[in-house]
Amino acid sequence: MPIDRAAVDHVARLARIALTEEERERMQAELSVILAHAERIAALDLDGVEPSAHAIELTDVMRPDEVGECLSRDEALANAPAVEDGRFAVPRIIEDA
Amino acid sequence: MSDAFETTIGLEIHVELATASKMFCSCPVAFGGEPNTRTCPVCLGLPGALPVPNRKAVEYTIRIGLALNCRIAERAGFHRKNYFYPDMPKNYQISQYDEPLCVRGHVDVPTEDGVLRVGITRVHLEEDTGKSVHVGGSGRIADSDRSLEDFNRAGTPLVEIVSEPDIHSAEQARAFVSELRAILASLGVSDVRMEEGSLRVDANVSVRPVGEGEHGAKVEVKNMNSIRSVGRALQYEEARQRDALRRGEMPTQETRHFDERTGRTSAMRTKEFAFDYRYFPEPDLVPLTPSRAWVEEIAARLPELPAARRARFAADYALPAADVAVLTASPEVARWFEEAVAAYGGEPKRIANWVTGDLFGLLNDAGVELTEAKVTPAGLAALVRLVDAGRISGKQAKGVLQAMFDSGAEPEAIVAERGLEQVSDEAALQGAVDEAIAANPDAADKVRAGNLNTIGFLVGQVMRRTGGRADPRVVNELLRRKLVP
Description:
The structure holds 2 protein chains of 2 kinds.
Chain A: H1 5-14, H2 21-42, H3 73-77, E1 83-84, E2 87-91
Antiparallel strand pairs in A: 1-2
Helix pairs in contact in A: 1-2
Chain B: E1 5-16, H1 55-67, E2 71-72, E3 79-82, E4 92-95, E5 102-111, E6 114-127, E7 131-135, E8 146-150, E9 157-163, H2 170-187, E10 199-209, E11 219-224, H3 227-246, E12 254-259, E13 264-267, E14 280-281, H4 292-300, H5 306-317, H6 321-327, H7 331-344, H8 348-366, H9 377-388, H10 394-407, H11 411-418, H12 426-439, H13 441-448, H14 455-465, H15 472-483
Parallel strand pairs in B: 11-12
Antiparallel strand pairs in B: 1-9, 1-10, 2-5, 3-4, 3-14, 5-6, 6-9, 7-8, 10-11, 12-13
Helix pairs in contact in B: 2-3, 7-8, 7-9, 9-10, 12-14, 12-15, 14-15
């Protein structure tokens, strides 16, 4: 199932990625190839095979509930484009309706 | 269209777990504090940081599932829920999707019309977001010019409990949340403070004419910050949808925000809230397969739950339902009461009356929790014993309790210091009784003539002469002996 231009735009919008016209064309082609590959896998006879999201057979990796070191506030805020009152300052959240 | 309507409500409850550290990193969990002082690369979502689940949080989730009569999954997993919002630094929340830890349970909720069984669809584990402060405009999100983010809370273990749509009135919803909060408090897994956001309630409400098969439009109500708000918000929403249907309008499917001040709900702007979450398995986390042995061990350590405690209080202490409800509302209050009863050794109802009446009155006026009060269970028991022994009157005891509440002093010490002790020694009261009779010959004659109502007047005269310290029962007895043939 080749992916259409509207689907590329939708996915780009969901990921908040701005694409140029050239990139949209390339993505449309690449995503179609990826989907075709997924379809080939979906067509396999997998009766009796447990679904799996991991290639390794590891389960139940957990840590004890212990407190460790945190970053200092200055370190935490070091990459922030804008800081105000010790907080990350971000542009207004809701766009004009 | 028929004029009778029925309401269907399902609730989603978020509970912050009271673990020491966060869900996927070792930053401490706490309320408030200086912004951005409890973060690390994991909870800030910095590239390359790897989450590791907190075993205690998984255990607490299983504990909640067991208390809500759920089946504990043999295999559970985490998914990424993708959306962009500034309080979510990774741009996805690690949550559970098709493999939650606990499924299919129920809670039996005591209501005025008997027990209501509410189904629990699922209980799953996820992580909390950071907190936003909106700056500029009115300080609300809609007209602010920017927002400030504090990630201290980001990554706090958060349990989501989803109920079946088995609730049919605002009052039932309020009762359900109240019972659920009591259960969670008993389990010791959360602070369950709605005003601090450690327990958050969202509701899906739909109203339809009775007998119509289709549910009406589902309206989601958010921002109910107390159990009382749950009742108020849903009552308002129920009436709003009913009125719309009566006018022949169909309520729209939307998210509405409850305003504590006006008692109304209003529609939130939907544009930015229409998410497409694109859940996919969290590649950095492997499945959880809680062993049956672990689940059994957690089950064996479950504490007494509110329903069992209520039954025991009613049976062992012979208390009426109203007292039981108040005294078992939190495990702390229940424990305090039981300690006081044990220290007292007499009729439990006497302690119940003092706790639910005068003591709660003082706590409410001062805005103090029982556990923070200076009055101890042993102190209250000693006070009630002083009244029982006739050493102080019930009225004086109220004043002593106030002093105990203010200073934390023992009742004996307060009674001694204030010279309150009742005089019930007959010899000591004889003089005052004789004086009262001599000073009020007419009243004395009336009593002699058989008008016993007048004794009360003479008792009052003796009380005045003794500065209120005489034991009125003894005075009454002495007067009768003198005057009544």
